[in-house]
Design goal:
single chain; 208 residues; 5-stranded mixed sheet; 3-stranded antiparallel sheet; 11 strands; hydrolase; NUDIX hydrolase; hydrolase activity; NUDIX_hydrolase-like_dom_sf
């Protein structure tokens, strides 16, 4: 038996959108269960996101510390952002986020992994990229605001982040999945075996 997620869509008899926000909304679907009963499911509709695990020449990961109000924590994260434009190329979005949040560019890119962070309550899909051969971007820094105006930037050894995740000290989904996936890749077939940066992404089809 192949262990592989497969697309499937159960019948929806009614749908409504009780809330629409700036970037996301809430949808309510009446879904037919296998036994024929109809149950109501509420979930957040999300445009999708990209994240970047950027590794420098000293095996340090570029991380950002940012306040996240819903969980009342200041979390260490990797650069990430929304897919603001429908059909946007995720690699272009990831390169933009790396520049805007860290003022860094990378010459080598791969897809590290694709995840649904909270599939029980949100349809968000996230593509996490691996980037290396880093260099600072010349010119003025991107102007940040709101929570991003208070961000801290650091470079932390990959092994220290893995330890922090396993110790329950680091909680951000993209950081945790990213550092563990990269650690597994490095001890397995190597990063050269990762998917190319333009690999198809059925969860969020994009323009080449």
């Amino acid at each position: 038996m192949a262990i592989k997620d497969t697309p499937e869509e159960w019948q929806v008899t009614a749908t409504a959108v009780p809330f629409t926000g700036n970037k996301t909304s809430v949808r309510t679907d009446d879904v037919v269960m296998p036994d024929g009963n109809v149950v109501r499911r509420d979930y957040q509709v999300h445009p999708g996101s990209v994240a970047v695990l950027a590794l420098d020449e000293n095996d340090r990961v570029l991380v950002i510390r940012q306040y996240r109000h819903p969980v009342r924590h200041r979390l260490w994260e990797i650069p990430a952002g929304l897919l603001d434009v429908p059909g946007e190329n995720p690699l272009s979005a990831a390169q933009r986020e790396l520049y805007e949040e860290a003022h860094v560019k990378a010459e080598e890119w791969h897809v590290l992994t694709d995840v649904y962070p909270t599939p029980g309550g949100c349809d968000e899909a996230v593509r996490i990229f691996f980037a290396r051969d880093l260099s600072d971007v010349e010119g003025e820094r991107f102007e940040v605001e709101e929570e991003e105006a208070d961000m801290e930037l650091a470079r932390v050894p990959l092994r220290d982040l893995v330890r922090g995740v396993l110790a329950g000290e680091l909680h951000n989904t993209c950081l945790a999945v990213g550092v563990l996936a990269l650690s597994a890749a490095l001890t397995g077939d190597g990063v050269e075996a990762l998917r190319p940066a333009d690999a198809p992404w059925p969860a969020r089809p994009f323009e080449a």
